[in-house]
Amino acid sequence: MKKSHNPETDVKHAKAPRERVLAAAADLFYNEGIHSTGVEAIAARAQTTKMALYRHFQSKDALVVEWLKQVTSHYWAAFDAIESAHPDDPRAEILGWAFFVADEVASWTHRGCPFINSIAELPDRDHPARQLIEAHKARQWKRLAGLCEAASLASPDDTASEIMFVLEGAQVAAQNMSVSDIGTRLPRIVEAIVLRQSDLGSGTRGTASNRKLGT
Question: Is 131 a domain residue?
């Protein structure tokens, strides 16, 4: 008699054990929380054993770090795609970041930002996952400051900090649902910052609202 197959189970077993463990951990850490998720639950979700899990990951903390590395890789892939879409147009790139974040928060579940959630659960700043998040944010600011400088905006470091403040604030607002229409508001606010700093950088005055980025 021919055995029946469960497609979902077949796909899971087609993945290497390490990939299954990491995929299970990512899902549980995000949806259930880091502290609420034990290695037993991860192993069960990955259809493996704790012993097999520890062969690939030294500890639960190591799993948390690998999960957050995946999250940061998602962001950097998006930023690289924005750069490719707007070659030699740093102002359009900056606005692209705003549209990306707006789309990102619109796709979140009720759990919101994985970085915000992880920081809330990991108060020790020496925790490797906390350090990874801080390094990611610092690298993000540095890249944004480079775009502001390339766009000839006034005070590129300060401008990058202002834009980062808006981008980060939008993510918090989306998570606690304190502001509506973030997808519309966020790009508009970032565009206003860029146009204002462009005027200051060029030493001109005028009505920034009459101009659009990339023109």
Answer: yes
